[in-house]
Amino acid sequence: MLGLKLSIVGIVVLVGYLIYLDATLTERFSSNRYQAPALIYGRSLTLEPQAAVDKSALVNELKRLNYRAVNAVKDSGQYRLTEYGVEFYRRPFDFATGPQMAKRVQVNFAGNRVQAIMSLPDGRTLNRIQLEPPYLGRLSGGNNEDRLLVGLERVPSLLIETLLLVEDRDFYHHSGISLTSIGRAALANLSAMRTVQGGSTLTQQLVKNLYLTRERSLWRKANEALMAIVLDYRFSKNEILETYLNEVYFGQDRGSAIHGVGLASRLYFGKQVEELDAADIALLVGIIKGPSYYDPRRYPERAQERRDLILQLMFAQNLMSKAQYVTSVSQPVLPAGTGQLVTENLPHYMELVKFELGRLNLPANWQQEGLRVFTYFDPVTQNAAEAAIVTELPRVSDDDALQGAIVIANHQQGGVTAVVGDKNPRQVGFNRAVAAMRPVGSLIKPLIYAEAFQSQPEFELGSLVSDEPFQLQQPSQPTWIPQNFDKKFEGEMLAYDALAQSRNVPAVRLGMNVGIDRLTELLQLSGVDSPISSVPAITLGAVPLSPMAITEIYTMLAQQGSYRPLQSIRVVTNHEGLTVYERNLSQARRIFSEAAGFLVNFGLRGVINEGTGSKLADAFGVNKLAGKSGTTNDYRDSWFVAYDNQHVVTVWLGRDDNQPVQLTGSSGALKVVQQVLEQIPIVPLQLNSPIDVEAAGFHPQLGVRIPVDCNNARLLPARIKKLPENLGCSGNIEEKSWWQRLF
Questions:
Q1: Distance in angstroms (rounded) separating the CA atoms of residues 444 and 692
Q2: HEC per residue, 59-100
Q3: 432-472 pLDDT per residue, tens
Q4: Are 625 and 619 in contact (CB under 8 A)?
Q5: pLDDT one-digit tens code per residue, 513-569
Q6: What's phi and psi for 59, nearest 5 deg?
Q7: Sequence-ordered list of residues with C-beta below 8 angstroms from that of 441, at least 6 positions apart, any chain
Q8: Dist. CA 540–CA 533, nearest whole Å
Q9: Catalytic residues
């Protein structure tokens, strides 16, 4: 009687517990199965006819993406060199614009440009082809789990069949637990004299991974079985299988746990899950039993033995042909160049992405679906920046405390493509590219000139400016006597020459005419959000800004006065490909008129052609670049900014303790800029003259308009102005003789 009562009580307790599990598990499994991180990607290399990409650049990109060189291209992820270019099989990828299937193409080159793109094998001409973007890393809300969520429809049927063969043959027939599977696994293991199959169902394994600890006890095992029964009752087999495929653990990468077949495929094979072949599938399924024990990176022989055993099972169960089996067992356990999702960490760029991601209006529960963040990051410019700062700093100075930062942006897109915040590009910590606030020196002068062109209609590149000493009296302040860098004065000179030669005194005089408050306002309109002291010394750059802020200002100048904030993030989607955020590139704010923007760009091109940046013209040719140097008091900061028709490259050198480094902008930072530009394809600067600007002649001593055909004329762009018919080359009105008036 007592036993009956205890049995009834036990049944009641069990039913109650099952009801509790049903309520809690259903809620958790429906809405919070796992956390998925934000996966960060760089830019997609886009190839189209006449694109400035050469053969070696394409091959390097393919190698970065773990494409394999072969003699005959048959599968995705392969490439080969041909007589006129490169043939490759682009992998399938879910781009920000939507999924694209694998595609085999031939890209031909003419010099350093793409000549033509053909689809193979049909030979159809293509207008463009995108390579999948490089994976940069992950950002998450605190856990150390990495996964790329994939739908069941994307998983190869051979992977599903092999997984069920090894782990749970009765998956579609049991109710969460299977006594048959336990018995079959025991027999298989005895027959092979080793463990080749497990007794737990996939549902039990999923419950253990999601909700239970690794404790070995009868209670945990019983709890696992009950929870598996509840899940199997409440959810479809396909839902459970898809969740398992996204949750199963596959090992570690740089301290992060790799979960799910989506990211494991990328980690071990450099492939999308759709691309996995039989050998890949066998290895992945084999790893599930013991990700540490069968880690193919640490124990390749052990992992290969496990893989080959599973290949035997696949062959024995007619999941593959004999030819496929022979081919599969002969493959290396891992392709060369794989085994890491991220080969190099990018702490300074990733810090920028994390900051921007935190400012976006993202769904509060984004970790349930995960994010894919597509950035402007360009590995070519990043590698160039890193190499430049590592090699050039010891060359320009033997000061061990010398530090540096580099920011590179695509000013056409308003996107940050590379960031280096330390002389050691891998150093985690203080990111000088965004956090080092240093006086900018002469880098501020283009803003002064641009505003003068805009607000003073009579001021032109050919106008005279005064390079004569003067004193500035300030209330409750000592008298300020601005000096030029060389402590000399040139007297009256053309504005173009004063800007190209970076003369201080003319810039101060012009800045005082523009107005200190207006100059402060211009900095704020150009993206500066840090405090600015509105003092006369601001005309010589006595305002601390970061290299990122300077890059944003010069991006505006490169766009001829049109401002768009710099960003690292272009598009954000969830793991299913649905767009969560997309940048609106059409939104821009005009700071200067097109005419003023054009004139200051022409002057900054002169800085490179014949001014303080002429070493870059010597290296790369005239009219290809514009830029500006910057040096602060006592040689504490060395700046240089250069830009072509696509890139803005900003370099700062200095010491964290603000001690002098004895470098000017031209003797220090310029050399780092030059090293960067030697490694990236320069897109020659194209200055688009507005309709109200024309080529004009200026008297070199008087700074007034004269006819353009005068031998003494300095030819410079200027706003269209009708000149008197009898204006002479002297700059004066010349009366015509009766003979000239007659004819």
A1: 26
A2: HHHHHHCCCEECCCCCCCCEEEECCCEEEEEECCEEECCEEE
A3: 999 999 999 999 999 999 999 999 989 999 999 999 998 88
A4: no
A5: 999 999 999 999 999 998 898 889 999 999 999 999 999 999 999 999 999 999 999
A6: -60, -40
A7: 540, 541, 630, 631, 632, 637, 639, 665
A8: 13
A9: 167, 442
